[in-house]
Design a protein that fits this description.
mainly alpha, MetI-like fold, elongated
Amino acid sequence: MKNRKQSKATRHSLVLIARAWETRWVILLALTYLGSFAWLFTAGTSEDIRPSEILVTPADPEWKGPGQDHWFGTTSTGLDLFNLCRISMAQTIALAALASGLGLGLAFLAVMLFAFDPGEKRFSLMKSFGRIGKLIPCALILLIILAGSGGGIAALVATTALLVAWHIGPTLAVWFEDSENRPDVVSAYVVGLSRSEIVTNRVVPSTLRKMVGVFACLIPQIALLEMGLSYLGFGSERLSIGGLVAYGQEVIIEAPWLAIYPGVFATIVLIVMGVLGWLASRLLKTGRVGRFL
């Protein structure tokens, strides 16, 4: 009996299955990470969540302690604290993800301005920025505080994205240089491929994979920064975990759960996302990246 030749669709399907099996741990980790995002963002948002109306103590407060109906208790206006924690944490994570993505995009664009230059010192300017980068966060944190106190969410996200770009840019430049020393890239130069083809088809894909791991690691760090600013009162008119904790401390004698449970909730969420980000960085072989702030 003659061997039947596999169809083109079958061959492509087998290749996709093989690649999915090779990256099964990355896929599982990504699904877990996205699942944690989905759990936060599916919190009910039908309630009025303006802090100026929620984080107040009326003359006759309606708060209740933790119980079977309300795991974290209720606020002074009778709203479920657990649901408010999910809503506020979702907003914090959304801001952190937006700032991280914009910052990484800016850093990548900055590196691409020099990537096609064949000179050996094409990234010297970015590396010199990296050497003085330890002084920049101090100045940019002041800008973030100013943005949070008067500039609104857009200014806060933009300023944080600039800080991320300044922090990650030199690392991306080092990744580009290291990628060009790989055996497959050196072989591509030997066979006569142009620099644009090599950078576009070989160097950029490997760098983008590593950036995914950096993105996962940055989100909990920036979320912690935003929570600290909101706790100090520099957040705009939005609900935040930091604001909940700050308000809870004002009534910690009458309703201690308002300060304790939001802090415990935020700690658990940040630890989970930090561990998931670390695992993503390990699986994607990101390597050592300096801590943000």
